[in-house]
Amino acid sequence: MSSLSTHVLDVERGTPAVGVRVSLFRGQDRLAESHTGDNGRIADMGGGGLEPGAYRLVFDVGDYLTDQGRPAPFLQRVLVEFRVEADQAHYHVPLLMTPYACTTYRGA
């Protein structure tokens, strides 16, 4: 089984994005929900036991922005769909975001 972590960076401010709600889905089933910590990270999003298959992370960036008293003029939620393969021990999915743009990749 594979583990999953994530890291959200607020590129506009140049800081970790603290308090972003992140949900993990497989199909329509929500497997986990957590918030990023003081370093913008969630170390074990899937409880350390992801079977091979398709998953989706949902980052609630609009709520994060409005919780800080900032406008959320464009992005509300960012969805990242990815596959977990049987021979991979760990997946790290960082999100770099601003109110208008985002990017993600498979990290280490």
Account of the protein in words:
This protein is mainly β and 108 residues long. It has one domain: Immunoglobulin-like (Sandwich). It is built from one helix and nine strands; from the N terminus they run ββββββαβββ. Strands 1, 2, 5, 8 and 9 form a five-stranded mixed sheet that branches. Strands 4-3-6-7 form a four-stranded antiparallel sheet. The radius of gyration is 13 Å and the shape is elongated.
Concise summary:
The protein has 1 helix and 9 strands. The chain is mainly β and 108 residues long. The protein has a single domain (3-104), classed as Transthyretin/hydroxyisourate hydrolase domain (Immunoglobulin-like), CATH 2.60.40.
CATH superfamily: Transthyretin/hydroxyisourate hydrolase domain
Number of strands: 9
Structural class: mainly beta
Compute the number of structural domains: 1
Unreliable runs: none
The CATH architecture: Sandwich
- Helix percent reads under 10%
Mean pLDDT, to the nearest integer, reads 95
Query: Helical segment tally?
Result: 1
Separation, N- and C-terminal Cα atoms: 17 Å
Radius of gyration: 13 Å
